[in-house]
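stage 2 :: seqdesign
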């Protein structure tokens, strides 16, 4: 599962990772979305995609958009795996906040060697998700049962947070808000109300917290039912 490349190319790694995560989040993989997520210009994206087509990492289809090839998928899984292992290490062992860990891991993912990756797996006891609940590729991760979006849980019902999708990690201020409110994987709460504008108010850690529509439609939870 480890991608061996003759030359070190962080941009290929970054783009492959982004395409993998857009697919994971159910977002259409087109140049505009890649530009948004990487915060780069459209011409820069189209230039890089051209190079990645030449390197056999992606294919472009006018109807279906951009997709990873088999070797692109291996590269992406390797980078995503290292990112999520690094996030686990940075939060669980070094006690960094979610936001700090997310940013640091964005650098670590490019320099972790197979030996360090194996050591991380050992010291972290073979984790299956990042601190935000996103699956670590190649781990024994299993989809939670009875999972649905926070926005779909009825008022009065209990839920347990399962997963904060990568999409929210890129929303400015979201990770700080979620961590500060205790909306973290493994924590349970109850739905209080759902407002017409899509805001879901939940009771968690003894406090009422309003979760905006964008996040409530993306946070995955499990319910007892
Ligand atoms: Zn994460």
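stage 2 :: out
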């Amino acid at each position: 599962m480890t991608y061996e490349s003759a030359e070190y190319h962080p941009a290929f790694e970054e783009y492959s990772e982004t395409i993998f995560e857009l697919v994971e989040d159910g977002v259409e993989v087109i140049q505009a979305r890649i530009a948004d997520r990487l915060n780069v210009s459209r011409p820069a994206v189209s230039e890089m995609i051209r190079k990645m087509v030449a390197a056999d990492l992606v294919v472009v289809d006018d109807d279906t958009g951009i997709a990873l090839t088999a070797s692109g998928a291996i590269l992406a899984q390797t980078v995503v795996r290292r990112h999520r292992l690094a996030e686990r290490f940075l939060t669980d062992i070094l006690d960094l906040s979610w936001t700090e860990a997310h940013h640091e891991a964005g650098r670590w993912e490019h320099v972790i060697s197979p030996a360090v990756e194996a050591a991380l797996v050992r010291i972290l006891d073979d984790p299956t998700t990042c601190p935000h609940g996103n699956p670590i590729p190649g781990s024994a991760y299993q989809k939670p049962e009875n999972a649905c979006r926070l926005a779909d849980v009825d008022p009065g019902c209990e839920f347990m947070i399962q997963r904060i999708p990568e999409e929210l990690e890129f929303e400015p201020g979201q990770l700080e808000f979620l961590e500060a409110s205790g909306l973290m994987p493994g924590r349970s709460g109850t739905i209080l109300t759902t407002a017409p504008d899509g805001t879901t108010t939940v009771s968690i850690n003894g406090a009422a917290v309003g979760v905006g529509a964008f996040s409530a439609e993306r946070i995955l939870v499990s319910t007892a039912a």
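stage 3 :: structure notes
- The chain has two domains: 1-142, 147-222.
- Residues 13 and 189 are 37 Å apart (CA to CA).
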